[in-house]
Amino acid sequence: MSTQPTFPAVDSSALPAVDTLLDALVEQIRPQVDPARCGMVGIHSGGVWIAERLHRVLGLALPLGTIDVGLHRDDLETSGLRIRMRASMIPFEVAGADILLVDDVLHTGRTIRAAMNELFDYGRPERIRLAALLDRGGRHLPVAATFLGAHVEIEPGREIVLDRCASGAHADTLLLKVQPRSGPRESAT
Amino acid sequence: MTRNPQLDAHGALRHLLSIEGLPRDVLVNILDTARPFVSVTEREVKKVPVLRGKSVFNLFFENSTRTRTTFEIAAKRLSADVINLNINASSASKGESLLDTISNLSAMDADMFVVRHAQSGAPFLIASHVREGISVINAGDGRHQHPTQALLDMYTIRHYKQSFTGLTVAIVGDVLHSRVARSQIHALSILGVPEIRVVGPKTLVPDSFSRMGVRVFNRMEEALKGVDVVSMLRLQNERMDGGLLPSAQEYYKSYGLTAERLALAKPDAIVLHPGPMNRGVEIESSVADGSQSVILPQVTFGIAVRMAVMSILGVG
Amino acid sequence: MAHPAAAPLVIHGGTVIDPVTCREYRADLTIDGGVIRAVGRVPDGFGDARRIDATGLMVCPGLVDLSARLREPGYEYKATLESELAAAVAGGVTSLACPPDTDPPLDEPGLVEMLKYRAQTLALSRVYPIGALTQGLGGERITEMAELTEAGCVAFSQADHPVTDTRVLMRTMQYAASFDFPVWLRPQEHFLSRGGVAHSGEVATRLGLPGIPVCAETIAIDTLVTLAQLTGARLHLCRLSSARAVEQVRAARASGLALTCDVAIHHVHLCDIDIGFFDAHSHLVPPLRSVRDRAALRAALADGTIDAACSDHTPVDEDAKQLPFAESESGATGLELLLPLTLKWAAEQSVDRPTALARITTDPARILGLPPGRIEAGATADLCLFDPLEDWIVGPATLVSQGKNTPFSGLPMSGRVRHTIIGGEPVFSRARSNVTTLPRRP
Fold first, then answer.
1. A97: distance to nearest CA of chain B, Å?
2. Mean pLDDT of C102-131
3. CB contact (8 A) between residue B43 and residue A70
């Protein structure tokens, strides 16, 4: 699946536009999913924003689900609970579902592990596939995206975050940024 | 006076002993954290690994199967190991002292003590003697506090009323002996409820409560006028023995929450009760089971709120 | 007394405080044969006498404490006569009254004689037992008051035990009045206070502690004053706790009743707020009341409405305090805090030192029926020499008493006893402590 382009991302300006990546994802996903059966689940926060757009464009029948992996994170012991955790909301039957999990940036794979654990708490899905906007490498777990917007290379000590303009003329516009890694926490992305 | 012993040097929650003196942020954070836990209880696997590998000791020096069970469910849904200890107070006083018991249990690698005790302040004493790293949750001490009950009540109120500002809340019944009422009064004030009323006969609602920032009423009809929330308290049978009340029947006649009386409150007023209810003593069955009653959701939210408290104390 | 007429002693360089004449002046004291021989110039012939350098020290009559529990007989695990009389002299207390709530209670002459004998053997503070008013303090049968008086009891009391039957109370007072025996009672109506552990007020309401209302004291004082007027008993009210009680004492005196009363020194300084987060060390009897009550007690002690302050010394073992507030044993150690806490009150209340010291020396002596403790030639040489400027921290290491239980633990005190002299004999001396290690007071 390494057909996607790779960007050497030294700063935010070198990153591809979100819309371009979304188009690439839609192109890959559309032939592979059944819009009547596919249950899409976005991972808070960036994954949900991506999923909202994919869900709309793909015209999926089942309502969009959202997951906060806060309760399944493996670094609770050292990092504690996050302030303002959101409730996971899966508005369709998980048991037997064909699930497409959506996240923004794939990194260590720990978030995906936590999200799959969370999903299994709702039931046993028939299949789970993963769509991610970007893969920045550095996996700690054997996790791979089924559908991917692009690979990026990034200097150690920096991270890529997806941001959304909350208001103004560009409200709801998604933007990828490169920034120094925040906090001591081992990135769970 | 010394620093509030339930907060650490950074103002973070270390024990939950009393609502009194807790910053608003701490309360709001508990309520916010409880929300995802409500959804956990709706899943097929009602369990998350937040407290995996931790040991929660339920230390019940006063028997209460109901409260103990809610804490037990909450802890188990967080994947903690739960050890229930019903320590009969009289046998404890004959033999091992309270603090010896605590030292022994601390040595068993406990992470959390959930304490119910008949004496006001007992959890404070325990908290001041536990090993560093052990959190104490007050599950009801004497007449003093029942903080998790008040928190679940606040969660319920926020769920139905969205916000606390602008609300009028009436707390009805045996306020004098009620740890629930004391915790509610503090929680409601901290969260910004502008008018808190307490109502009951002077034997159960002494005027000294006005010093806690509440309005004291002795007539049910006046107290219920225009309120958004009616919080009923349980009436213990022994109140009839100490010359505090003539009979349960007369209490119901004056202070029972009937449909007729509830009509004096706002049309969308909600009715809370910490349970177990005495139907026909505090509350009419039709009200308890009626559309304005949120007594059953309280129970559901109670588990989530206790999960939130345990999570915050357990993993910070 | 078991204090033998001692060898001559000269106390030089000190400042004498005479609570009777209300004067402070520099003078040397010459003591011989257990009495003060001269105040001022040392008479000829005392060149070889033992000398105490009192430079920088205050020399006042020994303290007289109207209530100190010595815990014997019966409660030796809490404290012993040895430990508590050592604490008494370390606190400058030369005479003390001990309440009858020992185990068994002081209701038999033999017990009183034994206590007196034990105390005399130790040759420390003079001990004046208060006899039980009713047998076993049960509130039902009158004790053999005449026999007990002969054995050494100076008054009769119920300590903290009630006489619930008002007719029994009246008869005990009638009987005591027949022989002019003083009756010391702590006013607290039994039924209103039953089960209570704290002042019925904001703090108890907040903490959910069962309360003792002020009216329990008010009603009891009304009853006792009425019965004293009726029976002619010499009534002393112990441990007043409220502003209302102060008013009642004033009113009773205005109506012609010659009653006396005291307050515990803790209640002059603390109030219910000091319970904090269920601090069992502030679990006292009577309960610490409101700020307003405390202010009234402080003022009444200054104007003399309240005759005396006492330590209400109650050593309690730590295990009995390490319990939930209501289950903890009440009481605080006090013998060694009586002087500094009185000085603190005097400074805060702008009471002159001689008047302040009168409340813990000559005034309680009068209530006990002792000579007033003047500093003059011929007076018994029971003296306390203290450094008014010495700072110290209250704590297990600085307290002599076996009871380390005090709400003042860890707090700084100003004023420390350096020498205690009883019957002309120095029974206690301590060197000046190294004050440089003490934190400054705010």
1. 14
2. 96
3. no
Is C53 assigned a catalytic role? no
The domain B147-294 belongs to what CATH superfamily?
Aspartate/ornithine carbamoyltransferase (3.40.50.1370)
Contact residues, chain B, for A116 at CB < 8 Å: none
pLDDT band at residue A3 using 50, 70 and 90 as cut-offs: low
The structure's pTM equals 0.89
Residue ranges per domain, chain A?
A: 6-180
Q: For residue B312, what are the contacts with CB-CB under 8 A and spacing of at least 6?
A: A81, B13, B29, B30, B33
Best mean pLDDT range from A177-181, B87-91, B208-212, C378-382: C378-382
The yes/no answer on whether domain A6-180 falls in CATH 3.40.50.300 is no
Chain C partners of B98 at a C-beta cutoff of 8 Å? 322-324
Chain segment C2-59, per-residue pLDDT in tens: 455 679 999 999 999 999 999 999 999 999 999 999 999 999 999 899 999 999 999 9
CATH superfamily of B24-146+300-315: Aspartate/ornithine carbamoyltransferase (3.40.50.1370)
> H helices within chain B, ranges in order?
24-40, 65-77, 89-94, 98-106, 122-127, 147-161, 179-190, 220-224, 248-255, 259-262, 285-288, 295-315
Task: Tell me the backbone φ, ψ of residue B12, rounded to 5 degrees.
Answer: -85, 155
Stretch (H or E) spanning B271: strand B270-272
Q: What is the per-residue pLDDT for C440?
A: 41
What domains appear along chain C, each with residue ranges and CATH number? 62-368 (3.20.20.140)
Most distant CA atoms of chain C, gap in Å: 69
The interface predicted TM-score (ipTM) is: 0.92
CATH 3.40.50.1370 residue spans of chain B: 24-146+300-315, 147-294
Q: Do B47 and A121 touch (CB under 8 A)?
A: yes
Q: Do chain A and B touch: 3 or more Cβ pairs under 8 angstroms? A: yes
Query: Count of CB atoms within 10 A of residue C319's CB?
Result: 14
- Model confidence pLDDT, tens digit, residues A93-103: 999 999 999 99
Share above pLDDT 90 across residues of chain A, in percent, rounded to a whole number: 57
Task: Kindly tell me whether chain A and chain C come into contact, counting contact as 3+ Cβ pairs under 8 Å.
Answer: no
